[in-house]
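Write out this protein's structure.
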Amino acid sequence: MVTSKSKLHKNYMNITWNGGTFFNLSTQKDKNSNIDIAIEPVNSKNKENIILLKSDKVTNGQLKAGTKPFLISGPGEYEIGGVFVQSIDTQTKKPFYLIESEEITVCYISSLKQEDVNLELNNIDILIIDINGSSSDRAKEVAKIVAQVEPKIVIPMGYNNSKQLDEFLKVMGIEKQEEIPKLNIKNKDLSSREGVEVVILSSKK
């Protein structure tokens, strides 16, 4: 069961959306051990341990002053504090990440090009995908990627208005969901799930 509690519990992954393609992920193994991750930050107010950024040219505001996070800006495989990250190079040069922590695997895709998703992606729990564009053809492209990846949860991002979101949900055959401020999830909540659930996060931008 997906929850939206504000407190991050032991062994949970917490996901928040900051608008556009900017996300924060937090994982916590115990009360004294947590890892905070920023994906494609525009401006950061947190002390993240890991920054995932397609460009290695960090601009003012993307990192919190005085912090020295582990910056991942190119393709490769990384392990930081028990969090495994794979940054994948794509033909369109769009960000494409696999993140694994707390026995949960997150796939982050900001490209809608089918050729960028021709990898053999197995056991993806959560798919964060850019649905920017209002046409039904664009929504169908996203739906094909969802069908290919077969995640348990889909979190759409990148849309600028409700029309884009509604078009995506229509193609997916899903009624509009209530927005939640954040997603707190545990592996055991995913293990017995069947089918795909779309989770709509409210933007913090």
